[in-house]
């Protein structure tokens, strides 16, 4: 039987807060880096290249997980959500893979203004 006096409540609370069981803090995944040379938007679609598939065994687990996720195009924000890491960490991991040639970025088409976007959406709804 466990004596309540021997149990440290702070230890129990600290373990209960992290359901992922992650032992490595997100900033350690990037070596403390938070800035990338490439500006990658939240909606930017990321896709693995054949090079990534060939060299996936040489990547650390977190970058290998990114490669696994982006076999089909996926937005940066979705990568971060699925890996349960901050967007800044996901951005740095993706930028590293981009430099290595393991992924390609597909930027969404930009519209000139918000009104033209709304008009296109309205036209699409009318065509349904």
Distinctive features:
128 residues, mainly alpha, Arc Repressor Mutant, subunit A, three-stranded antiparallel β-sheet, 7 helices, 49% helix, 8% strand
Task: Give a brief outline of the structure.
The chain is 49% helix and 8% strand. With 128 residues, the protein is mainly alpha-helical. The protein has a single domain (25-127), classed as Arc Repressor Mutant, subunit A.
Report the principal-axis shape: elongated
Sheet with most strands: strand arrangement: 2-1-3
Tally of helical runs: 7
Determine the N-to-C terminus distance: 67 Å
State Rg. Answer: 20 Å
Strand residue content:
5-15%
Query: Regarding CATH, which class?
Result: Mainly Alpha
The count of β-strands is 3
Q: Helix- and strand-based class?
A: mainly alpha
Domains counted in the coordinates: how many?
A: 1
What is the percent of helical residues? 40-55%
Indicate the low-confidence ranges by residue numbers.
Answer: 7-16
Q: Can you tell me the CATH topology? A: Arc Repressor Mutant, subunit A
């Amino acid at each position: 039987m466990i004596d309540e006096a021997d149990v440290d409540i702070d230890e129990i609370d600290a373990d209960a807060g992290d359901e992922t069981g992650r032992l490595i803090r997100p900033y350690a995944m990037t070596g403390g880096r938070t800035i990338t040379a490439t500006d990658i938007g939240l909606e930017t679609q990321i896709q693995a290249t054949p090079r990534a598939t060939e060299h996936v065994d040489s990547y650390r687990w977190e970058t290998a997980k990114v490669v696994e996720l982006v076999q089909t195009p996926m937005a940066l924000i979705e990568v971060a959500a699925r890996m349960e890491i901050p967007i800044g960490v996901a951005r740095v991991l993706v930028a590293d893979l981009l430099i290595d040639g393991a992924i390609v970025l597909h930027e969404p088409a930009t519209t000139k203004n918000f009104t033209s976007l709304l008009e296109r959406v309205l036209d699409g709804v009318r065509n349904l």
